[in-house]
Fold this sequence. Notes:
Blueprint: E1 7-8, E2 15-16, E3 23-25, E4 30-36, E5 41-43, E6 53-55, E7 58-68, E8 74-75, E9 78-79, E10 82-90, E11 96-104, H1 111-126, E12 133-140, E13 151-156, E14 167-172, E15 179-180, H2 183-186, H3 205-211, E16 213-215, E17 228-230, E18 233-235, H4 261-266, H5 268-304
Parallel strand pairs: 1-8, 2-16, 11-14, 11-15
Antiparallel strand pairs: 3-6, 4-5, 4-12, 5-7, 6-7, 7-10, 8-9, 10-11, 13-14, 13-16, 17-18
Amino acid sequence: MATAPIDVVKNEVNRTCEQFCKYAPNYKPTSSIATNQSSYISLTYDNGNTNAAEYNGQSYTVDQMRLYFPSLHSFNGKRVAGEFLIIHTPVMGGNTLIVSVPILPTGIQSKSAMMIAKVIQDVSKKAPNTGETTQVFSKLDMSKLIPQAPFFSYTGTLPYQPFNGEVNFVVFNPLNGGFDVDPNVLNNLKGVLNPHAVSLVTREKQDYEGNVFYNKSGPSAQTEEEVVIIDCQPVDSSGEIIVPDKGDDDDGGGGGSNIDIGAFFKSDAGVILLSILLGLAFFIAIAAIMHSAFNAAGRRWDATKIVLPSAAGNK
């Protein structure tokens, strides 16, 4: 039995969550291909990084993204213009994660508005029929699109066919966490997408109050990645060099080195090297002191062996 999507009513959500519904996005720039799926637009996430997001400390990859018009969820009894879904697969097994961002016809020219407009316009022109595809992005940076705003969280089934499984939802509030879109752009969808037939699920009051939560802090940053040293070049856990190699400056200046000495000596290799240098300096200092002491003792010993002339020898 389907248990999603639901009508999200802020005044009926009495329970908050900060730790057990903690969402930390870590999306990397990716190319993306859009496909006209008749009642929605699917988008590929081609980066493939295995830690695209964390939910409750568990790592997720991105399986796909979807655009629905109108939205699947409703808010205070009303569906909005559209909904952007990021569908995640757990790396180590567990529930699917779906992050939902409502799409609002505000007319504001924001980054999200430009992203939505490009998808709609490209699909309407280059993939107007069901099953047709077109590349819409060569470098989509979703990390700059995720709202830094509170969100709702609940557990349910998939909000579309086959309406099964167990899914953790992160649903942003349209009042402060939606994507913008130009109302005129939405007109391009006429004759391109068919209206979806997804029905809202009505939950009993007791079930609703016990399963829907509100995270007022919004998305959080992932735990800072540990810096490791390989060939004296600091890299993050994915192997990317943090400090550029000599001559790799973006300004083309070449010449100077940008290695951060302070950061190096805070690393494990730096601590070991510093310990060796301090130990060597201590050894040299002790050796110098002992050498000086032996020299002084030798001069005193030589002084006791001096033979004074005898009285007979002076006659």
